[in-house]
Amino acid sequence: MIIVLGLLSFTIAKQRALLYLQNNEPLRSMPVYHGLYVSLWAFLIPFFLIILFLTFKANYLNYLVTPYLSEETISLGSEEIMYVKNFLINNISNLNNLINSGFISEADSNSLIEKYQNSRLISFIFVIVLSIVLSFVSYRKLSVRFDARRRVESILKFIFFIFSTIAVLTTIGIILSLIFETLRFFSQVGFFDFVFGTHWSPQTAIREDQVGSSGSFGAIPLFTGTLLITAVAMSIAAPLGLYSAIFLSQYAKPKTRDFLKPILEILAGIPTVVYGFFAALTVGPFVRSCGEYIGLTVATESALAAGLVMGIMIIPYVSSLSDDVMTAVPLSLRDGSLALGATQAETVKKVIIPAALPGIVSALLLAISRAIGETMIVVMAAGLAANLTANPLSAVTTVTVQIVTLLVGDQEFDSAKTLAAFALGLMLFVITLALNVFAMIIVRRYRERYE
Amino acid sequence: MNKNFSKRHKAESRFKAYGFFSLIAAATMLAIIIGSMIYRSIPAYTNYTIDLEINMTEISLEDGIDDINYRGILRSSLFSFFPEVQSRSDKRKLFKLISSSATYTLRDFVRENPSYIGKKFYFNVLFTDDSDLFYKGYVDISLPEDERRLDNKEITWLNQLDGTGRVKNKISRNLFLNGDSREPEVAGFWGATIGSLITITVTLLLSFPIGVLTAIYLENFAVKNRITDFIEVNINNLAAVPSIIFGLLGLAVFINFFGMPRSVPLVGGLVLSLMTLPTIIIATRSSLQSVPPSIREAALAMGASEMQVVFQHLLPSAMPGIFTGTIIGLARAFGESAPLLLIGMVAFIVDIPATFTDPATALPVQIYIWADSPERAFVAKTSAATLILISLLILINLAAVLLRKRYEVKW
């Protein structure tokens, strides 16, 4: 509807501007801009309002149905309340369904529906009237000397600025939501119990009197598990990725490069869920049977299997970044070394790698941050039980696995269990952010040195 | 001297070989992953079926199409092969060899073709996953009876049925055209694929305009100051935040704060577009930068305004690069599953979604769900879905590469 209004005002304003032209009056801006100016006013603010209405519709509906809950429903606890509320919200425009459900009397149904439809009508009329008023006001401003183009452009510029803040708002949203939920978590569980506790078993019992009803939230085993798997992954990815990068940037002829590079790109493009499935189905059992063959007991969900596959996944991240930095080393350094009689390998080891070291280090740091934040591989191939161990053959669990297990499925949103996931998320965010920022600083310094 | 020389040369070729072999190792891994998926997916594409003779001669239309005892008809037809099976438990076991979906497919068939009522005809019925795997040779008969999914009796029956010549191996249409199901022989990934497409559409609609306009603002209009510097650093950092954090954001903000429903593609698309935004912004900025300044200066000299320069000159020249970046970002979002798990798109959903607010799941999440299922037949299904996902992604990326090659302007 407001799109139609916007288009309508566009044509009217443009026609008026064209009329000036026909009368040979010197227009300051092209007719299109006259049209755009009015239609932007007619469209933008109402459109923004509609988005706002839609975002808060669910909250409003929730508020609307709350007084209609019967005392019987409320006495049945939060789950039943949620169910009835959802039912009422979903059937809010269907009188028969409401009455037949038995949750709400006929008189109440009628008043609820009436309220709902009134508020809908009011917001609808409000938006339309606003659109018309705005377009009328802006239409009155048009004249021969009116600089519509500059006005339109400054409006657009402002919109662009708003868009560019969305990225910032996302970050703020992440930080605020994580911190907010984490603070709620720490009001239930002590900070030091979480950060330095060595026992993780978040299963809070349903009844208070059950054994172990409190659950314990010591995050140390999760972080050691994450580090163990990351270490395994990096011990695969670092050498393979670096040597691949050296070969691609120093030895490979352009044709070989064109052929080999896509392999790494495909490896980087495979979804992590595929790696996870591969790890759980093929690598896990394979590692176990290998272990049995040489007389070791290996868990099916061993850290080794998950780490191996994660290592494969990370190879391209290491190689593509270090490839870039090694190609960026000035040719004069390389040629100088070769001219002094050093072999290719010696040049790489003694000249290129030291020169590219900051870049390589930051590539490794970014790869580590990737490995720490990686979810699907460990969810599918690593264990659930939190063991505090450094043995890669046993099953360990990671931060991301626990976030997923705590939050998947229907859960109450106030229990320490779900809030713990946000505390873990905050730790994860801080750690990866620190690694990324550190890596970025190193790269920036490195670039400055050679540019 | 000479000795030293050959030693150095050996070290040289050793070093080169290390590099070559690590690349080969990566290639081998890729081959193993794809190869194992192809190998494991083989049983998924076909399903063994049997033509059962349906006797509807004693049934008339007056009974009401929905009230006909389809199950009974199928039972008696199947039991006619085995007159010697009398005990109730044996009969139940025998009927469990064919898929429990058979009753519904027969009902749907009769509903659409009521003229078959009162006649005798052959109807093609699926076997269950276990019988299907037996026919395909995946059941190890040498194992002790209690370690197999099928006992000796069932195996004799299946062999007997095979002898009638009515058993056929048919391409499994269910795999490609159905939604999810608890029965492996009925489950398909079409519902998840549609869910993925809807989600990606939301992502595209949101992240493309916002990303491109943000990049234009930062590249052309923003005054260099603290705020824009902060925005820039922020975008670069956001690109490296683990995807699961975006899931937490979606759960806390969209679902809990704004009260949006769980499991819907709209919320999934919102979360994924926040995740894709940095990729698109970075790609757009670098392709805007690659347009030579002479174009911009020429347009400005002709009296174009900043805005006109951007929309009439810079943006059209930068479009191929922008599209490539967007496609790559969307491909990543298409294969992403971790954030979707947290916002509830991991539910068991049979119906094929049609709108932005229908409960849905996505193709990668479907893979996760199936990989978690205990039935053995799901292994093949999962591998097949995996292959479809990988080939879709390779196609998308190929499209990006071709687009870049075709339209890239060399200045």
Structural description of this entry:
The complex is a heterodimer of chains A (451) and B (411). With 451 residues, chain A is an all-alpha fold. Chain A folds into two domains: 2-158, no CATH class; 216-450, MetI-like (MetI-like fold, Orthogonal Bundle), CATH 1.10.3720.10. Chain A has 17 helices and two strands. A two-stranded antiparallel ribbon of chain A has the order 1-2. Chain A is flat, with a radius of gyration of 31 Å. The two termini of chain A are 55 Å apart. Chain B has 411 residues and is mainly alpha-helical. Chain B has three domains: 2-42; 46-171, no CATH class; 190-407, MetI-like fold, CATH 1.10.3720.10. Helices cover 64% and strands 5% of the residues of chain B. Chain B has helices spanning 2-41, 70-79, 88-95, 102-112, 129-135, 152-163, 173-177, 190-221, 226-238, 243-257, 265-289, 293-301, 306-334, 338-342, 363-372, 377-407, and strands at 46-55, 120-126, 167-171. A three-stranded antiparallel β-sheet of chain B has the order 2-1-3. In chain B, helix 10 (243-257) crosses helix 11 and helix 11 (265-289) packs across helix 13. The mean pLDDT of chain B is 88. At the A-B interface, helix 2, helix 7, helix 9, helix 10 and helix 11 of A face helix 1, helix 8, helix 9, helix 10 and helix 11 of B.
